[in-house]
Amino acid sequence: QVQLVESGGDLVQPGGSLRLSCAASGITVTLSAMSWYRQAPGKGRELVGSIASGAPLITYIDSVKGRFTISRDAFKNIMYLQMNSLRPEDTAMYYCFTRRAGTDYWGQGTQVTVSS
Predict the structure, then answer these.
(1) In CA terms, which of 8, 70, 76, 101 is 20 to 30 Å from 31?
(2) pLDDT by 10s per residue, the chain, length 116
(3) Separation CA 112–CA 33 (nearest Å)
(4) CA 23 vs CA 11, 29, 55, 92: distances in Å
(5) Coil, helix or strand for 67?
């Protein structure tokens, strides 16, 4: 059974930083392709970035390049999203995602609010 549990969301001022965590069970994060998505109020779910299985090939959408970083901790089996220089437009529910054997798995989400 694959389970993904996000944490780390909070209210932060513009320019601040947060680190989101996605704790995984039922998969090995370093051997799994995984992604971070976000969904702002009234908008569709948007891919933020992805990390490939095995080799650390990572891609990001243009709006977060240079500000967000995806990483993995093999020992803790956690995927992270380090977010720096946060902007009000980064406000959203953030989800981690993986696909295994043709089945999509989502976490429950963690709320990030960027506001002064």
Answers:
(1) 8
(2) 999 999 999 999 999 999 999 999 999 999 999 999 999 999 999 999 999 997 779 999 999 999 999 999 999 999 999 999 999 999 999 999 999 999 999 999 999 999 99
(3) 23
(4) 21, 9, 20, 19
(5) coil
Query: What are 99's two structure tokens?
Result: 């696909």
**Three-class DSSP category at 2:** coil
Q: Are 2 and 27 in contact (CB under 8 A)?
A: yes
Helices (H), 1-116: none
Cβ-contact 94, 9 below 8 angstroms? yes
Please report, as a single letter, which amino acid is at residue 58: I
Q: Which residue has the tokens 């891919």?
A: 47
